[in-house]
Amino acid sequence: MLENNAINLPHDKLYSELLMLYEIGNAMRSTLRLDEILYIILTSVTAREGLGFNRALLFLVNEKENKLEGRMGIGPDSGEDAHDIWKFIETTKTSLDSLLSAYQEFGRRTDSHLNNLVKSIHLRIEPNSGVLAQTVIDKLPFKIIDSTTQATINIKDPLISLFNMEHFVTVPLLAKDRVVGVMLVDNFYSKRPITEDDIWKLTMFANQAGLAIENSQVFEKTLVLSNTDRLTGLWNHGYLHYQLNEEFKRAIRFNRPLSLLMIDMDFFKRFNDSFGHPAGDVLLQKISEILKNSCREVDLVARYGGEEFAIILPETHKEKAYASAERIRKATATTPFAYNESAPPEYVTVSIGVASFPQDTSTPEDLISCADKALYAAKNFGRNRSCMFSKEL
C-alpha cells in the first residue's frame, strides 16, 4: 500500500507535468458522456503525451449491488486500436484536450480482446476479493512492483493470472470522499519499471478522473429520466432525433455508414381491441425487450410513437442493417406473449423498413423518410417482413 507522501520534482518537470494534468482536465470537461469520459481517462493514461503506461483498465463501483464492474481497457495487446490511437495523436499533433476527436474515430470500437475481457469482470467489494476490492475498501492506491509487495495482497487474486500481470498499480477514483471506481495500470509491453514519480502523477490524475466520472453519472441519470419513454424504458422520440443528428455528424466526418430501422407492430389495434389496452402495454414492453436484446451496445433503440419503434445503427452498411432487421423480425414472430396467466400465449409480428447513409440519402430527415417508405412497403407486401429502401418504392 502507498503512503500519501509528496514527491520532490525539479521545477521544470513539475511545471510540465502539472500542465499535462491541466490539459487532461480540459479534455474531460469537453464532454459529459460516460463512455467518452472513460475513453479520455484511459487514453490519457496510456498515450505517450499523457502518463505513458502500457495498459490501463477501469472498473466502476456499483453501489447498489456492492460490486466492481469492468467498463473499459486500453493497451497494446488489445489489437491495433491502441496503436492506431497513439499514431493518430502523434501524426496529427493532437493535444490532450482534443482526445474526444480520437474517441469518435477509434473509441467506439468494442471488439478488442482486452476490452471485452475487462467488461466481463464483476467482483464483490469484500476483503477477500483481491486487490481491486481492497483499493475500494481502503480508499488508497496499491503498488505491486516487486516480490515483497506481491506478498501484501491475496495471492489467489484472479486478476493477476487473468491479465498475466507482474508489476502494476491500482488507484481509487475518488469523488470527494466516495470511491466511484478503480484504475489498474501496468507496463506489460515495455517492462518499464513503475516509479514513485509515475505513481504520484497517476494519483493526482485519479482525483480529477473520479470527479469527472461522478459528474458524468449525474448527467446521464438526468438524461435518462428526461428522455426515456415511461412505458417501455426505451429512449423517446425527441432523443432519437437528437442522437440521429449527432450520428450523422460522425458518419460524415469519418466517412462511415449509418443505418436506421423503422419498426411497426402488425395489427396492433386488433390486438388492443381483442385483449384490452393493459395487454397492449404488456406487449409493447415485451417487444421493447426483444429490440434491446437484439442490438449492439452502440445501437440506439427508441419508441418512435404508439406501436412504432426506431433503431439507429452506427457504422452499419445497409445489407448488415437488413440482416439485423431480419433477426429482430424472426425473434418477434417466434416469441410467445403471455399477457394473462389464464390465457393461451399469443404470437405477433412486426414489419421493418431499412434505410442507410450515404446509400439512400444525405440528411437525417430524409433517412427517417426513406426508412418510413420502406416500412410501408413491407406493410403493403403482406407484413411480417423487412424491406430495404429503394427509389422504386
Structure description:
- By secondary structure, the chain is of the alpha+beta class.
- It has two domains: 11-222, Beta-Lactamase (2-Layer Sandwich), CATH 3.30.450; 237-388, Reverse transcriptase/Diguanylate cyclase domain (Alpha-Beta Plaits).
- 47% of the residues lie in helices and 18% in strands.
- The chain is built from 14 helices and eleven strands.
- It has helices at residues 11-29, 34-46, 81-91, 99-107, 113-119, 131-138, 147-150, 158-162, 196-227, 237-253, 268-275, 277-293, 318-333, 364-380, and strands at 55-62, 67-74, 122-124, 142-144, 168-175, 178-186, 258-265, 300-305, 308-314, 350-357, 386-388.
- A six-stranded antiparallel β-sheet has the order 3-2-1-6-5-4, with helices on both faces.
- A hairpin with a 4-residue loop joins strand 1 (55-62) and strand 2 (67-74).
- Helix 1 (11-29) packs parallel to helix 9 (196-227), helix 2 (34-46) packs across helix 4 and helix 3 packs antiparallel against helix 4 (99-107).
- The longest helix has 32 residues, at 196-227.
- The protein is elongated and about 70 Å long.
- The termini are far apart.
- Residues 2-7 have low confidence and may be disordered.
